[in-house]
Amino acid sequence: MSTRKPLIAGNWKMNLNHLEAIALVQKLAFALNDKDFDKVDVAVLPPFTDLRSVQTLVDGDKLRIVYGSQDLSRHDAGAYTGEISGAMLAKLGCTFVTIGHSERRQYHHEDDDLVNAKVQAAYRHSLTPILCVGETLEIRQAQNQTGHCEAQLEAAMRGISEEQAKSIVVAYEPVWAIGTGEVATPQDAQEVCSALRARLAALYTPEVAVGIRILYGGSVKSDNIAGIMAQPDIDGALVGGASLDAGEYVKICRFGEMSG
Length: 260
Ligand SMILES: O=C[C@H](O)COP(=O)(O)O
Hints:
With 260 residues, the chain is α/β, with parallel strands linked by helices. It has helices at residues 18-31, 34-39, 51-60, 86-91, 102-107, 112-124, 137-141, 145-156, 162-165, 186-203, 206-211, 225-229, 246-253, and strands spanning 7-11, 41-45, 66-69, 96-99, 128-133, 169-172, 213-217, 236-239. Helix 1 (18-31) runs parallel beside helix 3 (51-60) and helix 1 packs across helix 13 (246-253). The longest helix has 18 residues, at 186-203. The structure holds glyceraldehyde-3-phosphate. The site of glyceraldehyde-3-phosphate (G3H) has 14 residues, from strand 8. Pathway: Carbohydrate degradation; glycolysis; D-glyceraldehyde 3-phosphate from glycerone phosphate: step 1/1; Carbohydrate biosynthesis; gluconeogenesis.
């Protein structure tokens, strides 16, 4: 029996301004109670421009919701127009930072080296990376999904110490399942998540690997979360579209009450 506490993280992507962010976090805070937070860590990952408002609300009302950003710069400071540093995110009280999301890899040409540099930047500022890996449909059709995701993981973890690795969160997100309504079967997701854990055990130790949270992401909804969470190597979900609806997100956070 693992002691990993489940994590449900809502990636809002480029949705909701800071006023809408406050409204959504207030709805979540109203609906979720201490029993929920004892069972599951609940995070939101709003756009950068919302973070200060979310911080003020969370701190002011002493909410148990945690939050983070969707990206960070590989650099700590300097002449990098448009970039946001880990130091700035830490100052805003961020717990998490999403790194290597497939939309960053695809639309911003982020490669494994940049993802690795961003993971290192996150640790320099005591932020917990939510490191995303996942295969395209083409790779899955060639049945190379586990090899591909393991290679992305290994590249991202270069130079990361065992002590640092203990806190990382890995998110397996098959690209073909993101925003498409095409959810991976629980067995598909388990296959890759188990391979990722085995690779972490080989890179570090089995003890480290057994403590690391691995999430699934890709068209997660309240009606499919239970089957996904029933898998032994899946410790939570990275939720996109469904995290923008408070009622639906709360149901996902209460996955134990959903039927599979
Ligand atoms: O980060 C979240 C994923 O990209 C999943 O998005 P989705 O739930 O809208 O498919």
